[in-house]
Write a structure and sequence with these properties.
The chain has 261 residues and is an all-alpha fold. The chain contains twelve helices and no strands. The protein is elongated, with a radius of gyration of 33 Å.
Length: 261
């Protein structure tokens, strides 16, 4: 499987999960009156994870989640614009600030930054949604903006809480969810090729000779300066040794010795 195909499948899976949660949330909110106060949309946290894995391409998850939410709820055209563009703009700005400027490694090292990232994303998404939906409103821009802002803050409050827990769990090293996938795949491929030698070399206890040759097994090729000999060097050495056996220790023939004498 190519990297491009794997990336596409991975992002689609995150998008499907976001769609399923939006569907479940809608069914629950329409079936149980009290559930409207416990709105649970995980599109934003899933987008953060997808963008952490694949960069800006993961923003597709945000658009899919918003689109499915509007389709399921039979939203009006301005709600489509508000949710889709509000989601995309919000997570894009958050990505630039936290993943691009601050860096992925710092986010994983400092959990407070990770939670701040989530809160900023939610805040930006709510802000952009409210701004877009208020444009051209019959109730007046300011009145519609304030009403929409209050409603979305209340609506998304439980989503923020649960999403924070999900993000912290995803950031745990063992989960392997929040990893930069291109680097991760390269590391896995290198490990397969090298048989774990790279990790061994990174160890503070690594001895470059021990994994291959025990102290009692040193041969001339290990002792010679410059490391092991090439095949060409070995062939040349073999020819020299044969000549010494034929001509004597100093490498001269009998005729040559007589000439000098």
């Amino acid at each position: 499987m190519t990297l491009k195909r794997y990336r596409t499948i991975d992002i689609i899976i995150f998008g499907i999960i976001a769609i399923v949660f939006e569907l479940v949330n809608y069914l629950a909110s329409t079936s149980f009156k009290d559930f409207k106060l416990v709105f649970m949309s995980y599109t934003i946290v899933l987008t953060i994870i997808a963008m952490y894995r694949w960069g800006l391409r993961g923003i597709v998850v945000s658009a899919l989640g918003a689109l499915s939410s509007c389709l399921i709820a039979k939203a009006t055209w301005n709600q489509y614009l508000a949710y889709i563009f509000g989601n995309v703009l919000g997570v894009f700005v958050g990505y630039i600030i936290f993943q691009y400027k601050i860096g992925r490694n710092k986010l994983k090292e400092k959990k407070i930054l990770l939670i701040a990232y989530l809160l900023v994303d939610f805040s930006l998404v709510i802000l952009f949604r409210s701004l877009i939906i208020s444009i051209g409103s019959e109730n007046g821009f300011l009145n519609e903006f304030i009403t929409s802002l209050k409603g979305l803050i209340i609506q998304e409050s439980m989503s923020i809480l649960i999403s924070s827990v999900i993000l912290l769990i995803a950031s745990i090293k063992k989960s392997q969810l929040m990893v930069e996938m291109i680097g991760y795949i390269k590391d896995v491929q290198d490990d397969k090729k090298l048989g774990g030698l790279r990790e061994l070399k990174r160890s503070e206890f690594y001895n470059q000779d021990k994994p291959f040759t025990e102290p009692s097994e040193f041969d001339e090729s290990n002792i010679l300066e410059g490391g092991t000999l090439s095949q060409e060097d070995l062939d040349e050495l073999d020819e020299m040794m044969k000549r010494e056996l034929e001509t004597g220790e100093d490498g001269r023939t009998e005729e040559e010795k007589d000439g000098t004498n």
